[in-house]
Specification:
- There is one protein chain.
- The chain has 184 residues and is an all-alpha fold.
- 64% of the residues lie in helices and 0% in strands.
- The protein has seven helices and no strands.
- It has helices at 4-20, 28-40, 44-51, 66-80, 82-99, 136-144, 147-183.
- It is globular and about 65 Å long.
- The model has no long low-confidence stretch (mean pLDDT 90).
């Protein structure tokens, strides 16, 4: 599964794509910040599990579902209308798409929750899997901070930076097309 930096870069990039299609776009920094934050939000289930003494047992459940995307898009709409709904929705959904692109095989997603508990297989092997196993928190932290794991995190972040750049280019093309259409 991609770690937060990768999720956040992809979420910010897709927020810019959403922003590029708006007649009255949100300020860029706000769209990027919200898109990045929404992209990291699904992994709050890890924190919830730790706080409840269940470790990572909640990871990949209700927060990793299409239902959650709809709920957060509706919250975005309630906060500020359709523009915010788009940024909330694409930011949150980007997390699920990125999780489908890791090399783990069976994913940590429950896309159909609460109607289905099935977990899809990854559809690509773009993001290398970082080992997060360990006996307790300290051992897990040491595993994540090992040189091998840090190299995998760097590779994830580099891959996500490439996606971010492609999304910025796509947004620029969309804006250019919109401007040409409005002039004609």
């Amino acid at each position: 599964m991609p770690f937060p930096p990768a999720h956040m870069l992809i979420g910010a990039g897709l927020a810019e794509v959403a922003r590029s299609g708006m007649r009255d776009p949100l300020p860029r920094w706000q769209a990027w910040a919200v898109g990045a934050g929404m992209a990291a939000l699904p992994d709050v289930d890890i924190v919830l599990g730790i706080l409840l003494g269940k470790g990572g047992s909640y990871h990949g459940t209700f927060t990793h579902s299409l239902s959650a995307v709809v709920v957060w898009a509706l919250i975005g709409y309630a906060v500020g209308g359709g523009r915010w709904a788009a940024v909330f929705g694409v930011g949150y959904a980007s997390h699920l798409v990125a999780d489908l692109l890791d090399e783990s095989g069976p994913t940590n997603l429950m896309l159909g929750w609460p109607f289905s508990g099935q977990r899809p297989y990854s559809i690509g092997k773009l993001f290398p899997k970082v080992p997060v196993e360990g006996d307790g928190m300290a051992d897990t932290a040491l595993n994540v901070l090992s040189p091998e794991s840090l190299m995998l995190l760097a590779a994830q972040t580099a891959m996500a930076t490439g996606f971010f750049a492609v999304f910025l280019l796509l947004a620029r093309l969309i804006r250019g097309r919109r401007e040409r259409v409005s002039v004609a």
